[in-house]
Amino acid sequence: MSTGWLWLLAAGVVEIAWAQSIPPTQGFTRPWPSAICLALCVAVIYLLAMASKTVPLSTAYVVFTGMGAIGAVALGLALHHDRLTPGRLLAVGLIVGGVVLAHATTEHA
Q: Is 50:7 a contact under the CB 8 Å cutoff?
């Protein structure tokens, strides 16, 4: 796995953490949760920028948003007791398939 893909993996993980950090800010009215949220947002942008040095941005963004979506669904199921419906399962399967296809068809430097 190239360095760009490792940067992208890190960006996806931080993206999931960043999304989970938004609700505790309560509309950015709580200083510390807001500061954490903003710091994670900056980290996500930095990591995605580093990944896009060697991974085409179009591919990087598809993989990045896919990881964020899958992470949000997984955490919703695990932490917030969201229901796993056939439609949600199909959506996750399509996202995973798209991410795998984007990775498999990207020309590597």
A: yes
C-alpha span between 81 and 29 (Å, rounded): 26
Residue 79: band (very low, low, confident or very high) from pLDDT cuts 50, 70, 90 = confident
Q: How many domains does the chain have?
A: 1
- Reported as a single tens digit per residue, the pLDDT across 37-78 is 999 999 999 999 999 999 998 889 888 988 998 898 888 889
* SS3 state of residue 28: coil
Domain around 23: 3-104
| Tokens, residue 106 | 């990207």
Which H or E element spans position 42? helix 31-51
pTM of the predicted structure, to 2 decimals:
0.81
Q: Is residue 25 part of a domain?
A: yes
Q: Is residue 35 part of a domain?
A: yes
Is 109 part of any domain? no
